[in-house]
Amino acid sequence: xxxxxxxxxxxxxxxxxxxxxxxxLLALSLFFGLLAAIPLGLMRVSRHPLVNISAWLYTYxxxxxxxxxxxxxxYYGLAQFEFVRQSIFWPWLSSATFCACLAFAVNTSAYTxxxxxxxxxxxxxxxxxxxxAVGMSRIKMYRxxxxxxxxxxxxxxxxxxxxxxxxxxxxxxxxxxxxxxGAARTVNAQYYLPFEAYIxxxxxxxxxxxxxxxxxxxxxxxxxxxxxxxxx
Amino acid sequence: MLxxxxxxxxxxxxxxxxxALSSMALAVVLGLIGVALRxxxxxxxAWLGDMYATVIRGIPDLVLILLIFYxxxxxxxxxxxxxxxxxxxxxxxxxxxxxxxxxxxGAYLSETFRGAFMAIPKGQAEAGMAYGMSGMQxxxxxxxxxxxxxxxxGFTNNWLVLTKATALISVVGLQxxxxxxxxxxxxxxxxxxxxxxxxxxxxxxxxxxxxxxxxLEKRYSAGVKVAEL
Lengths: 232, 229
Known about the structure:
By secondary structure, chain A is mainly alpha-helical. Helices cover 78% and strands 0% of the residues of chain A. Chain A has twelve helices and no strands. Chain A is flat. By secondary structure, chain B is mostly helical. Chain B is built from eight helices and no strands. Chain B has helices at residues 6-38, 43-57, 61-79, 93-118, 122-130, 135-165, 177-188, 191-220. In chain B, helix 2 packs across helix 4 (93-118), helix 3 crosses helix 4 (93-118) and helix 4 crosses helix 6 (135-165). Classes of the chains: A mainly alpha, B mainly alpha. The A-B interface holds A 1, 61, 63-70, 72-73, 76-81, 166-171, 173-174, 181, 184-185, 188, 193-195, 197-199, 201-202, 205-206, 209-210 and B 55, 58-64, 66-67, 70-71, 73-75, 78-79, 160, 164-168, 170-171, 178, 182, 185, 189-193, 195-196, 198-199, 202-203, 206-207.
């Protein structure tokens, strides 16, 4: 039994194209996911029961069901309804890229909202008292004190979420997209060399994971340095 | 119910549960082996355990499933003739699914267990030694019961992720709940209905597990004082 390097080498352009697709999917879904997660996180810490419970229900349902089901509901499911097919959104909703990004963004927004809410709740009480003492309004306090401080402290947990999302983007290959996993599936279909095809994809993901871990370490040193234990 | 597909999907749900429970059992065994390796004083064993945890956790579940299911079958069939076995070996999707998910989540659990073991104060083991217990006795009577309490939150998390990851095994042809729903959706052209039904089933499974494991956590934390703010 030999490992066939030639096939992997020949398929390298396909894998590199897949790498681009994976990065594009990851960046888009993280961006829109975070955009939705900030208001959701604020809703989760609201004292108003209706606001709080509706955000809780959203995160609970999304976090309690598999990503694959959510993706299928959006990609295959929505086409069941006549009014969706007639609507102006149909050109978007019939595109696999858009559906994958939408499903991933919805998924990560729920997890990220919980991270932000947890981080907001862990705000040291003194920071809030100090903000009140200088006479800040509620909105100003959230904008200047609570959110910046909570977002920094959420960084270590958010790095885990980003890595989970990187892995989740591999599901895009199930709805016909050629990301890294999709490239591996194509290579396997062409040459019938499953071991070589998927090991290569695994190495790509492993490298991406290491790079992301490194980047977040740097970000933590930059923005969370003041919480690190003092070097003696 | 569900145009006569209700029973079919429930059948699939039973298979999903079997898959999740069996792979978790395997994952616990592999996780304990993994943590024993990682905490071992023998350096190359610790390195081996770390490699297992790092590599598996750095690769998407779907890629590992495809790799082990198709790649594993390929390797088996390349190696088998050398051992004098000439028939083509076809992997059973359920067995392969249990093996794959167990192997993946063993890595995640080894991380959970490691954190739990390290959170037990050193004095506990030393006190056991001082009473004249053997190493094994200290491990099973002092360390493991406390480790269980500390590991339950992480275990709960791993179990929920595993339950949801079982849906991916449908991609390699296991006729679980997800697979059955896809078939029903294709036959009736009502995908939304069936995927929504399956989503609800998963939500029931995760909710029940959450309640059960929370109760267990309470039981194992009896006698632990929590500081109230």
